[in-house]
Amino acid sequence: MTKQTIKEQILLFMESQSKKSFSMEEIAEGLKLQKSNDFKLLVQTIAMMEREKLVEFNKKGKIRLPQMTMAIEGTFRANERGFGFVTIDPEEADVYVPKEAVNYAMDGDLVAIDIVQPADPFSDRGAEGRVVAIKQRAITQVVGEFIAYDDQEIKDTDLYGYAIPKDKKMTGLTFNIAAQGIKPVDGSIVIVEVTHYPEKEYPRSLEGIVKKVVGHKNDPGMDILSIVVAHGIPASFPEEVIAAADQVSDTISEADLKGRRDLRDQVIVTIDGEDAKDLDDAVTVRKLENGNYFLGVHIADVSYYVTEGSVLDQEAYERGTSVYLTDRVVPMIPQRLSNGICSLNPNVPRLTMSCEMEISPEGLVVKHDIFQSVIQTTERMTYTAVNEILEEQNSETMARYKKLVPMFNTMKELHSILETMRTRRGAISFEDREAKVAVDEKGHPLAILLRTRGVGERLIESFMLVANETVAKHYNDLKLPFIYRIHEQPKEEKMQRFFDFAAVLGILVKGTKTDITPKDLQNVLIQVADKPEEAVINTMLLRSMQQARYSEDNYGHYGLAAEYYTHFTSPIRRYPDLIVHRLIRSYSQPVTETLKEKWAETLPEIADHSSKMERRAVEAEREVDAMKKAEYMADKIGEEYEGIISSVTRFGLFVELANTIEGLIHVNSLKQDYFHFIENHMALVGERTGMTLKIGQKVKIKVAKADPETKEVDFELLEAEEVERLEAPKQKKRQSNRKEERSKRNNEFKEKKSFKQKKYKKKGKKPFYKEVAKKKKGKKKK
Fold first, then answer.
1. What pTM does this model have?
2. Are residues 84 and 78 in contact, defined by beta-carbon separation less than 8 angstroms?
């Protein structure tokens, strides 16, 4: 084969793929050029193609087709302050779009952009662009609170009123409701179908028609439900899905046991929280005569009931995950299944997928077996009970579970071995604090409860981690299409910022921004353990990490320092786990090329969609959490607390209290001095006094404001711990900055004034934006 022929094949291969960049090995595999001589010829051809500018290498050393100079398409991500970023390629840095260049794009839109300022790799400055066209609108519906017009206003404007969107990224937009179809009452939470988007004459206005009234803002639980609906999360199951769940038998027949290994004689237990109802994992552990440990991890076989292509499967795919919101769960599958036949309840037979492992005293899996099974759990244990047994705190609990105590002690031994093994290889362990908002029957928050993780919680985590790794490695070794849970190496620019910050604190970080191992970062955490800077380094390092996601390609899990990883252990609440089970069952039969092609084709879309649904769930959970925390603080205005500065920005600093509630101290409220932002120190420094406020510093605050609607809490600074002072910029610079700020504010004011003076006209229609101020003036004259 000649270089010319290979060149044509390479171009054809790269153009036909959905991916934009490839490793040399991926191209070799795609073109079946993996033999030594063929691979050498491929490398030579790629080098020649680079010289001819037919291909180029990206920052990660992957090969891609040259980017054209024409407008580039990507996904626009809006910031609530007006600017945004466009993602063109997940492996490339986003393009920054300033506020004045957004061109009416909204969050999630597919846009075409021009690059007005290329990236500068030497100064770590990213590319800047401007939106030149909106190819496809992402937002077709909006959830908001309806504000009604009176009869005269409806007549004048041809509008029922307007809606205040629940999405913070739409802050500042006016959403007019056309006088057509459903007419809600004032204060209704509504779903609005968008009919007109922002344009040149009306840059901050949309128009739409009410498609559904979700409820009234004062209805119990409507605050959470409105967030659920705003994120596009289905609040209830369609009738056909409920009907399909009702048809599933709540008992197991002999036919269900065909092809399964019967483990009902084994001592197997579930260990979960007290309030858990969907028990999807069970475990057993024993010491073997050769000194190794036997670990059995048995997971509810949801895929047996949620069959491929069924209405239950389609609904589970669309949801992607269960969503946990304070006092409720929006489940992925109907509760008749999740809390019934799929839940590993005690003393009843249940269908499972099992991963049995033999583990050495060094924490290595030396043997394993993955198969379909049937189990019958001996006990439904709680974390509290297991912790009491392992810590020998409660003699009554010890006596009640006397027969199981030896197994729990063996579990503790194995957990310690596995935890040591993960630490030895470099797994990064962040000390994060979780809190649960306790609410009354009406959903009003009563307390913020900090969650503590005992040995019981941690040992179950260890067992699930090793099972996930074992399953991932098994199918990777077989070279079969599979779905992985991946966590990629941190991006260079984020690592550089972390290096700079650590250096300011005198912390040595081995490795480089382009090649740093998990072990290197683990050593940083060891350096600062039990030191004042521990919390701040944990926070900054966590923010430097990439987000884990699902992929059909195995890139390993950086944070766990694991070469192979998947999600196998929670199919009741995560769709990828259900797919892993489906793959295991599929590959238990003779594997044909047709079968492999089928999964190779479908898995990329499943992985991408599951990642998106996971992010959607996390955003909704965080939003509800922030809302309930703001509601909890609403009746504590004026109260004083001690906290830690958790983040510093140009506009102020965030303080986290002991109960995990975070609030903002805006720079304008700092009356002690005029403060400058020193980015590489993550600090605000007073110009006159030299007062320094930086991340990790202890402060005393007073609650100034708490608004559940905006989900924001504001604090006022009372006292700050004395720290080493930093030098502030010269006064001349401050005056220049202030002049720029005044100029910017004046321009914004003129823009708003100009907009308010415009009349909202449309050919052949009555105006649907009116000058309210002018009308009120006319009323006074009458």
1. 0.78
2. yes
